[in-house]
Protein backbone atom coordinates (compact mmCIF):
# COMPACT_ATOMS: atom_id res chain seq x y z
CA UNK A 1 0.00 0.00 0.00
CA UNK A 2 1.35 3.41 -0.95
CA UNK A 3 1.65 5.94 1.88
CA UNK A 4 -0.59 8.97 1.51
CA UNK A 5 0.38 12.63 1.38
CA UNK A 6 -0.04 14.14 4.83
CA UNK A 7 0.93 10.92 6.62
CA UNK A 8 4.29 10.13 8.21
CA UNK A 9 6.69 8.75 5.61
CA UNK A 10 7.65 5.12 6.20
CA UNK A 11 10.95 4.80 8.03
CA UNK A 12 13.91 3.24 6.28
CA UNK A 13 17.32 2.09 7.38
CA UNK A 14 19.77 0.74 4.82
CA UNK A 15 23.35 0.59 3.70
CA UNK A 16 24.07 2.69 0.61
CA UNK A 17 26.00 1.72 -2.50
CA UNK A 18 29.21 2.99 -0.91
CA UNK A 19 28.64 1.24 2.43
CA UNK A 20 27.32 4.22 4.43
CA UNK A 21 24.46 3.65 6.82
CA UNK A 22 21.44 5.80 5.86
CA UNK A 23 18.43 5.98 8.17
CA UNK A 24 15.41 8.20 7.69
CA UNK A 25 15.62 9.16 11.36
CA UNK A 26 19.09 10.67 10.75
CA UNK A 27 17.65 12.80 7.93
CA UNK A 28 15.06 14.51 10.15
CA UNK A 29 15.40 18.26 9.99
CA UNK A 30 16.08 18.14 6.25
CA UNK A 31 13.86 17.79 3.22
CA UNK A 32 14.24 14.36 1.62
CA UNK A 33 13.74 13.56 -2.05
CA UNK A 34 13.35 9.78 -2.06
CA UNK A 35 13.18 8.58 -5.63
CA UNK A 36 12.63 5.03 -6.82
CA UNK A 37 13.81 3.76 -10.19
CA UNK A 38 13.40 0.35 -11.86
CA UNK A 39 16.92 -0.59 -12.98
CA UNK A 40 20.39 0.85 -12.58
CA UNK A 41 22.37 1.65 -15.74
CA UNK A 42 19.36 1.74 -18.06
CA UNK A 43 18.88 4.79 -20.31
CA UNK A 44 15.87 6.37 -18.57
CA UNK A 45 17.20 5.75 -15.08
CA UNK A 46 20.59 7.16 -16.08
CA UNK A 47 19.02 10.34 -17.46
CA UNK A 48 16.94 10.80 -14.32
CA UNK A 49 19.94 10.26 -12.02
CA UNK A 50 22.14 12.63 -14.03
CA UNK A 51 19.47 15.35 -13.86
CA UNK A 52 19.28 14.96 -10.08
CA UNK A 53 23.09 15.18 -9.94
CA UNK A 54 23.12 18.34 -12.07
CA UNK A 55 20.53 19.94 -9.79
CA UNK A 56 22.14 18.71 -6.57
CA UNK A 57 23.63 22.12 -5.63
CA UNK A 58 20.13 23.63 -5.79
CA UNK A 59 18.69 20.83 -3.67
CA UNK A 60 21.47 21.32 -1.12
CA UNK A 61 20.85 25.10 -1.01
CA UNK A 62 17.19 24.30 -0.30
CA UNK A 63 18.20 22.05 2.60
CA UNK A 64 17.26 18.86 0.79
CA UNK A 65 18.99 15.53 0.40
CA UNK A 66 18.43 13.29 -2.64
CA UNK A 67 18.37 9.52 -2.16
CA UNK A 68 17.81 6.99 -4.96
CA UNK A 69 16.39 3.50 -4.38
CA UNK A 70 16.10 0.43 -6.57
CA UNK A 71 16.04 -3.30 -5.98
CA UNK A 72 19.44 -3.67 -7.68
CA UNK A 73 22.41 -5.11 -5.80
CA UNK A 74 24.98 -2.99 -4.01
CA UNK A 75 27.52 -3.78 -6.77
CA UNK A 76 25.07 -2.71 -9.51
CA UNK A 77 24.29 0.47 -7.63
CA UNK A 78 28.00 1.27 -7.17
CA UNK A 79 28.67 0.68 -10.87
CA UNK A 80 25.70 2.93 -11.75
CA UNK A 81 26.97 5.65 -9.39
CA UNK A 82 30.40 5.52 -11.03
CA UNK A 83 29.04 5.46 -14.60
CA UNK A 84 26.80 8.47 -13.97
CA UNK A 85 29.29 10.22 -11.64
CA UNK A 86 26.70 10.53 -8.88
CA UNK A 87 27.51 12.05 -5.51
CA UNK A 88 24.22 11.35 -3.74
CA UNK A 89 23.48 7.99 -2.07
CA UNK A 90 21.82 5.08 -3.81
CA UNK A 91 20.14 2.44 -1.65
CA UNK A 92 20.16 -1.16 -2.85
CA UNK A 93 16.84 -2.63 -1.77
CA UNK A 94 17.35 -6.26 -2.69
CA UNK A 95 15.01 -7.50 0.02
CA UNK A 96 12.43 -4.92 -1.20
CA UNK A 97 11.75 -3.64 2.33
CA UNK A 98 11.84 0.04 1.41
CA UNK A 99 10.09 -0.43 -1.94
CA UNK A 100 7.32 -2.45 -0.28
CA UNK A 101 6.86 0.19 2.45
CA UNK A 102 6.41 2.86 -0.22
CA UNK A 103 4.14 0.72 -2.41
CA UNK A 104 6.25 0.92 -5.58
CA UNK A 105 6.71 -2.77 -6.39
CA UNK A 106 5.31 -4.26 -9.59
CA UNK A 107 3.64 -7.55 -10.33
CA UNK A 108 1.18 -9.42 -8.18
CA UNK A 109 3.70 -10.23 -5.47
CA UNK A 110 6.28 -7.55 -6.12
CA UNK A 111 8.64 -10.02 -7.77
CA UNK A 112 9.34 -7.58 -10.58
CA UNK A 113 10.99 -5.01 -8.35
CA UNK A 114 10.24 -1.30 -8.69
CA UNK A 115 7.42 -1.07 -11.23
CA UNK A 116 7.92 2.51 -12.39
CA UNK A 117 9.77 5.66 -11.46
CA UNK A 118 8.14 7.31 -8.47
CA UNK A 119 9.32 10.02 -6.11
CA UNK A 120 8.34 11.06 -2.61
CA UNK A 121 9.05 14.46 -1.06
CA UNK A 122 9.36 14.28 2.72
CA UNK A 123 9.42 17.40 4.88
CA UNK A 124 11.87 18.01 7.75
CA UNK A 125 9.36 16.58 10.26
CA UNK A 126 9.13 13.28 8.36
CA UNK A 127 5.75 13.88 6.72
CA UNK A 128 5.11 12.88 3.13
CA UNK A 129 4.17 16.13 1.37
CA UNK A 130 4.20 15.16 -2.32
CA UNK A 131 4.16 11.97 -4.39
CA UNK A 132 4.96 11.74 -8.08
CA UNK A 133 3.40 8.59 -9.53
CA UNK A 134 4.63 9.25 -13.04
CA UNK A 135 7.96 10.71 -13.94
CA UNK A 136 9.60 12.12 -17.05
CA UNK A 137 13.29 11.28 -16.48
CA UNK A 138 14.58 14.34 -18.36
CA UNK A 139 12.50 16.96 -16.54
CA UNK A 140 11.73 15.35 -13.20
CA UNK A 141 14.51 16.91 -11.11
CA UNK A 142 13.39 20.40 -12.17
CA UNK A 143 9.78 19.55 -11.29
CA UNK A 144 10.82 18.26 -7.85
CA UNK A 145 12.78 21.47 -7.23
CA UNK A 146 9.77 23.58 -8.25
CA UNK A 147 7.46 21.73 -5.84
CA UNK A 148 10.09 21.76 -3.08
CA UNK A 149 10.32 25.56 -3.32
CA UNK A 150 6.50 25.85 -3.30
CA UNK A 151 6.24 23.68 -0.20
CA UNK A 152 8.93 25.69 1.55
CA UNK A 153 7.03 28.92 0.87
CA UNK A 154 3.71 27.59 2.14
TrEMBL record:
The keyword Cell membrane does not apply. Keywords: Antioxidant, Disulfide bond, Oxidoreductase, Peroxidase, Redox-active center. Its EC number is 1.11.1.24. Gene3D superfamilies: Glutaredoxin. It is an enzyme of class 1 (oxidoreductase). It catalyses: a hydroperoxide + [thioredoxin]-dithiol = an alcohol + [thioredoxin]-disulfide + H2O. The keyword Heme does not apply. Residues 3-153 form the Thioredoxin domain. GO terms for molecular function: thioredoxin-dependent peroxiredoxin activity. It holds the Pfam family AhpC-TSA. Monomer. Thiol-specific peroxidase that catalyzes the reduction of hydrogen peroxide and organic hydroperoxides to water and alcohols, respectively. Plays a role in cell protection against oxidative stress by detoxifying peroxides and as sensor of hydrogen peroxide-mediated signaling events. PANTHER family: AHPC_TSA FAMILY PROTEIN, THIOREDOXIN-DEPENDENT PEROXIDE REDUCTASE. Belongs to the peroxiredoxin family. BCP/PrxQ subfamily. This is thioredoxin-dependent peroxiredoxin. It comes from Deinococcus antarcticus.
Amino acid sequence: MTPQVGQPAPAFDARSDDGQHIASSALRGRWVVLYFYPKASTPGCSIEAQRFEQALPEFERAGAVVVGVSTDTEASQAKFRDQCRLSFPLLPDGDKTISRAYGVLGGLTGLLGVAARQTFLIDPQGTLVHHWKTVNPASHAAEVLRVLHEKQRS
